Amino acid sequence: MHEQRRRFLLITGAGAAALSGLLPPFNADAATWNKAGFESKALNDAIKSLGAANATETRDISITAPDIAENGAVVPVAILSKIPNTQSISILAEKNPFPLAATFDIADSAEPYASVRLKLGETTHVRAIVKAEGKFYTASKEVKVTVGGCG
Amino acid sequence: MSEPMRIRATLQGDVADVRILMRHPMETGLRKDAQGQIVPVHFIQNVTVAHNGKIVLDAQWSQAVSRDPFLGLRVKGAKVGDKITVTWTDSKGDKRMDEASVTGAS
After folding, report:
1. Residue A39 contacts by C-beta under 8 Å, 6 or more apart in sequence?
2. How many domains does the structure of chain A reveal?
3. What is the pTM of this model?
4. What CATH code is carried by the domain that includes residue A57?
5. Does the residue B106 lie in any domain?
6. CA B54 to chain centre
């Protein structure tokens, strides 16, 4: 019991040291934010910003999301790609004011999976776009929204 | 100062199921407050997750991600005690980093 507590304190101590700037900046090689894509109001522009205009429809992407979301402010969405060598997963809410919601760049050492909670303004198709070996694949699922979550 | 994240990483076989709960308002810039004023846009833009110091997931987000964001991912080749480090950066340039250890399935 005491041993566990001591280890916890050690871990939090290390975190504080890192935050106070003793360690090199961690985020140095983070991907830059896709400003053009995230600020696109048109679905096609958002898809183009990903380079995915010619994405192939596939059944090898599974989208887990509710059929009906009573609260559009918090809609759980999980994407699992079965496409070999998946590099990234993007999620778009087609009817949102800004359709592109998220892009996940995924290393080989993680499963091609990501789970988040999104705001959906109204009933919409949630579209996943997967990049694998430089090619794009897509699938979508409709989520009916009872009370929108953009306000 | 932002509030700490809650990070849980549970080993299932050799895959760590990582669940992260961040504390952030994720303001869309479309919402009005009680006085009818637009609440300025303010949201997490980048999240990186590292496993023993090596980045395994690098996320870019819009304001469509819900308030107090949840992120779930699965890290392969993990062992009990491995370090999972999560860093976010928001649209005002604020950052936060938190760390947790992979635990065995209970």
Report:
1. A98
2. 1
3. 0.86
4. 2.60.40.2470
5. no
6. 16
